[in-house]
Amino acid sequence: MSQSTATRPGMRERPLSPHLQVYRLIPTMLMSIVHRITGGALYFGTLLVAWWLVAAATSESYFDFVSWVYGSWIGRLVLFGYTWALLHHMLGGLRHLVWDTGALMDKNTSTRLAWATGAASVTLTVLVWIVGYMARGG
């Protein structure tokens, strides 16, 4: 029977891999994590768009039902979150595109850009919803 590396005579115990408890959370790391989460959330949001399109192609009563669901307070909250996820993921992708050129990679600039991505995604989401409500007439 073979022994593990840590229990062989004369062998030192191997170090563990770094984990989240070792690292200090910095803005660029946080935005990277949020970017991945919003990417996953967009899969769900795309199903919502598909459901809306299917309802539009099916019947007026089914479309009215889906519109009622989306118009409820929980539906609007989900759509607001989807809008934010879409905008945040887009801005994060643009940030990475800029970094792919080798620009804005120094520590201070990349940190400011990470904070700007978060702030801009929230600001743009609110603006999109304000414009949407104004376009609807209320």
UniProtKB/TrEMBL annotation:
A Pfam family that the UniProt record links to this protein: Sdh_cyt
Q: Does the keyword Transmembrane helix apply?
A: yes
User: What Gene3D superfamilies does this protein map onto?
Assistant: Fumarate reductase/succinate dehydrogenase, transmembrane subunit (1.20.1300.10)
How is this protein situated with respect to the membrane?
Answer: Multi-pass membrane protein
The terms under GO molecular function for this entry are:
electron transfer activity; metal ion binding
Keyword terms of this UniProt record: Heme, Iron, Membrane, Metal-binding, Transmembrane, Transmembrane helix
Cofactor note from UniProt? Answer: The heme is bound between the two transmembrane subunits.
The record lists the membrane-crossing segments as 33-53, 73-92, 113-135
The record's PANTHER family line, in alphabetical order, gives: SUCCINATE DEHYDROGENASE CYTOCHROME B560 SUBUNIT (PTHR10978), SUCCINATE DEHYDROGENASE CYTOCHROME B560 SUBUNIT, MITOCHONDRIAL (PTHR10978:SF5)
Family, per entry: Belongs to the cytochrome b560 family.
**What job does this protein perform?**
Membrane-anchoring subunit of succinate dehydrogenase (SDH).
Kindly provide the name given to this protein in its UniProt entry: Succinate dehydrogenase cytochrome b556 subunit
Upper taxonomic lineage: Bacteria, Pseudomonadati, Pseudomonadota, Alphaproteobacteria, Hyphomicrobiales
